[in-house]
Amino acid sequence: MKFQKYLLFLVITALAVLLAACSTDTKGNEIEDEKPKGQETPKTTNEDSTLEGSVVIDGSGTVYPLMARVAEEYMLTEQENVSVEVSRAGTSAGFKKFLIENGTDFNDASRNIKDEETAEADSLGIEVKELKVALDGLTFVINKDNDWANEMTPEQLISIFKADSGIEKWSDINSEWPDEAINPMGPNENHGTYEFFYENILNKEDLVSSVSLQQDYSTLVSLVSEDKNGIAFFGFGYYVNNKDKLNAVHVDFGSGPVEPSLDTISEDGDYANFTRPVFTYLNVNFAKEKPQVLDYAIYAVENFNKFSGESGFAPISDAEAKENLDFLNNLK
């Protein structure tokens, strides 16, 4: 008997709890009672998930593979309603699209912004933020059938591209090499890689008149792969993705030949003399006005190091990445 009374007590108690938790509206529909303060159900709506619009990026062809990879991942896994458009007009050409009214949101660059470009930004009232993206190794590539010039010094490489060096044939560098004309090539003036090479490697001395300068890196890959006497320079990423077509020159900086690689490309490593940082420049005004631009900037900075290796770049330090991220988070 006592047991039956106990069961009845449990049933009555359960019904009381259920009735206390619910009430009905004027139409007889069951509604939940208001929960005590501090116990509200957490909102499941993520404001970021509602982002829409576009993010427009142009600039460096060198940085393009990394930025395009990050953009692809962002659209697939983060914000499917945001369109991130990545183009590659070249660093200098990109700045012309960036530093205008209603210009691009980002400009990728394989060199630092110039004083005159900063002045132009100031005159337009555009706040620009430089974001260091990764490290690149300037790489000299030769034809697969070229079995004599696999190792050279920086001075020998520079002499091939320098106007007054007197170097025209391979035999001018080494008497044991073929007595055939060298065909030097590189990216044209629209590219930061050209400017880096001209300003930092050639020290602003004239290039040899026979140099073939191209807008598209894919064209340079094709030209060298088809020319036994061809030699070109560009970013490491374009070499590493075309190893089946090209060989990279190992550079002897004084302690033996160094192959450009993710292990040697570093600002204080074995390939330091030919290592350079690459950047993207953010229009801060747009980041403040357009939520999708700031959201993408934060995602990109958080993930550049993750995708740098597969795109042919060495990562920047965690401290540098954090500094960039702190700046962006403060714009929220």
TrEMBL record:
Ranges for domain PBP: 45-272
InterPro entries: PBP_domain, Phos-bd, Phosphate_ABC_transporter
Pfam families: PBP_like_2
Basic and acidic residues: bias regions: 28-40
Entry keyword set: Cell membrane, Lipoprotein, Membrane, Palmitate, Phosphate transport, Signal, Transport
Residues of the signal peptide: 1-20
Name recorded for this polypeptide: Phosphate-binding protein
Lineage: Bacteria, Bacillati, Bacillota, Bacilli, Bacillales
NCBIfam families xrefs: ptsS_2
Task of the protein: Part of the ABC transporter complex PstSACB involved in phosphate import. Involved in the system for phosphate transport across the cytoplasmic membrane.
Any coiled-coil regions, as ranges: none
Region: Disordered, residue numbers: 28-49
